[in-house]
Amino acid sequence: MLRILLIGKGGREHALAWKLNKSPSVGHVYVLPGNGGTARGLAKVSNIETTRADDYPAVITLARSLKISLVVASSDQAVVDGIEGFCREASIPCFAPKKTAAIIEGSKTWAKDFMRRHGIPTASYGNFSDYGQAKSYLSTVDYPIVIKASGLAAGKGVIIAEDPFEADEALKDILIRSRFGSAGTSVVIEEYLNGDEISILTFSDGITTRNLPSGQDHKRIFEDDCGPNTSGMGVIALTPRATLEVMKTIQHEILEPTFAGLRSEGRTYTGMLFTGLMLTDKGPKVLEYNARFGDPETQSILLLLEEGTDLAEIMVACTEQRLSEVQILTRADFACNVVVVAGGYPGSYSQGEIVEIGVMPRDVILFHAGTHLSNEQFLTAGGRVLSVAATGATLETAIKRAYEGVKSITFKNMLYRKDIGQKYIKSLDLKHQELQANIP
User: Fold this and answer.
1) Cis omega (within 30 of 0) on the bond before 361?
2) Residue 98 to residue 270: CA distance in whole angstroms
3) Are strands 70-73 and 94-95 parallel, antiparallel or unpaired?
4) Residue 145 in contact with residue 185, Cβ under 8 Å?
5) How large is the angle between the packed helices 108-117 and 99-106, nearest 10 degrees?
6) pLDDT tens digits for 41-97?
7) What pLDDT, on a 0 to 100 scale, did the predictor assign at position 155?
8) Average pLDDT for 273-284
9) I want to staple 318 with a disulfide (CB 3.0 to 4.6 A). Which of 65, 122, 205, 338 is the partner?
């Protein structure tokens, strides 16, 4: 039986723990550090809060003491820092890419240049570490424009500037005022793309790849895609715009060149690759790569795996380069999750507020993100607090069920978007079988 050490503390980690808890091959899942949701309610899951998740030698010592047979690194920092290398030196299998491959998330400037080298469709751009040069570039572009801190910024390092003044302020925030710390030593200034944004999660063992059902995140904090960007306010899956033809194009023009390009540069990729794309009128273009499961995409997409699909088996197969031997079966359903956040997010917000949770409706699952369990009481402990996920035979049903679940939650100053997936309900004329969930 597998003993798994899962590194992370968000809604994504609760969803992974929930699915791994169902695996017949899993004996126990230890979550480091975990959250209120992984602290109780799952028979084979428990938290560990005595070791810092970013102290990698200590993590290895912990893994050895617990006789861990698989480390699953799902937090961006651990993956980009190269926890896979620490595990490899200790002969502990790790579901994560090598540090040399994880740079595809760790440096947006590197990722953009990588796409250029390999002819992968993406927005036109410029990379800068000097404020003066970056400001001069602003006079050559059309607006709105997208400005990104190059490093890890907890999903908040993307600014959409509507005019030169806003763009200049963004550059000052990142390069001069150091708003994002070391993540902002360089920036990407790129073309603003119009279209439908989708996410693709892909398992890879270095040779074989397998895609999960497509998802669509809603990044802005307020309805109608208004307000600042967040790490994600809710996801629908399957994505109505990801037709079979669209997925074939993504597979052949983006995913295959991405994995082949990494191999050709000596950065063979194993683990989970998240590809964020915009479906433009000129075809799909890459917005970003993440070197791990997406959040909140995971909370919706994992619900579409068949009960008999063993997530632990898939992960182990990736570490042993035998993904081709494993079946990944998905349900003929749709999924939706709605993220409930603390008022003030993605800016400053209060913590320690009491969270009251009632009985969830049928086919609704509650995933915890920024919560902490104290004296049998859930308290807020982050900006994104909870993720309410549901499935349904139609997208409309899945969305309706998720919002019914939200009604069972109360805490001071709670906030959530009320339009997740709504713009697709009336326009949906595609049947589930016309959407492609699994292209190898």
Assistant:
1) no
2) 8
3) parallel
4) no
5) 100
6) 999 999 999 999 999 999 999 999 999 999 999 999 999 999 999 999 999 999 999
7) 73
8) 97
9) 205
In sequence order, the β-bridge partners of residue 211 are 202
Condensed to tens digits (0 to 9), the pLDDT of residues 162-202 reads: 999 999 999 999 999 999 999 999 999 999 999 999 999 99
Label residue 440 by pLDDT band (50, 70, 90).
very low
Cα 135 from chain centroid?
A: 31
Number of neighbouring beta carbons within 10 Å of residue 133? 11
CA torsion, ordered 245, 248, 250, 252, to nearest 10 deg? -140
Eight-state DSSP code of residue 225? G
Residue found under tokens 């993440």: 290
Q: Structure tokens of 41?
A: 């309610």
Exposed e or buried b per residue across 331-363, where buried means at least 16 C-beta atoms within 10 angstroms of its C-beta: bebbbbbbbbbbeebbeebeeebebebeebbeb
Say how far apart CA 120 and CA 28 lie, in whole Å.
40
8 A C-beta contact, residue 32 and residue 48 = yes
Least confident of 120-124, 317-321, 431-435: 431-435
Q: Residue 200 in contact with residue 216, Cβ under 8 Å?
A: no
Predicted pLDDT of residue 170: 95
Mean pLDDT over 328-339 rounds to 95
Residues 6+ apart with CB under 8 A from 433: 332
What percentage of the chain has pLDDT greater than the value 70? 97
Identity (one letter) of the amino acid at 37? G
Residue at token pair 């990736």: 318
Distance of CA 161 to the CA centre of its chain: 24
Alpha-carbon span 380 to 370, nearest angstrom: 6
Q: What CA–CA distances, in Å, run from 74 to 5, 80, 174?
A: 10, 10, 26
* Identity at 283, one-letter amino acid code: G
